[in-house]
Amino acid sequence: MARSIWAVTKLSDGGISALNTIDSSKVFAAHADSWQAHGRLWEPYGGGTAEFGGWRLMASGLPYAYFNAACVTDPALADKNIVRARAWYRKRNLSWGAIVPSGSSWPHGRHFRTQRLMATVPSSFSIAPAPSGLVLRRAGSGDVETVASIDSGAFGSPVAVSRAWLEPLCISAEVELAIGELDGQPVATGYATRCDGDAGPSLYVGGIGVLPAVRRRGIAAALLTWLLTSGFEDGTWFAHLQTDSANAARLYSKLGFEEFNGIDIYADL
Length: 269
Hints:
The chain has helices at about 25-40, 75-80, 80-90, 145-155, 160-170, 220-235, 245-255; strands spanning about 5-10, 15-20, 50, 55-60, 70, 95-100, 110-120, 135-140, 175-180, 185-195, 200-210, 240-245, 260-265. By secondary structure, it is of the alpha+beta class. Helices cover about 30% and strands about 35% of the residues.
């Protein structure tokens, strides 16, 4: 059974709207919204989006399947239209992956990974204090190499791959990309993308990374708090993220995130 949490959302005139239900289907819709938001951000770099017959597609233009995601909104209908999805990516000469709600019957490609989807609303989120010596700020175009280096160090990806994904985020008005500096040294990064698609106003949080030498000091929680506080002040109904790390999931749970039905990711389509 899908778990639900409730949020009271403020209207632009200061009034209060009806209660807004967040369930697994809405969290998945928000996940698809966020991928398509990134596809639109990447249009100047060869990216793009498309939507048809059970599919919501995005492309970054980057030659990595995990940055070209096709969300399956209706598995049975998407199965009938997979040739069209393949053709869309083939035209762009891009490898890609399919994101399917966990537990769905899906006959195409190779199951690559299962990830948790988690979400929270303003009334459930627990604010975490920043540890002594930590300063959080928004990254800009001049911070590309810094955030790429942190991301690479935190996740073990090549710096060039981190740079390729993060550089457009540093200059996007729709994305809040943060740098955490501990005693003057850059040690953490993460970003939040504002979306207003099928799921309504939401905030996708990604790339929360802390360098190994300074972990377990509350830096990730403080960074997440900084990003969500800004997003909730702008009127987003809820925030969501994905993770395949049990340790990260425990941290997010302590901050008020709940776990919903996850996603299965397929490659070699």
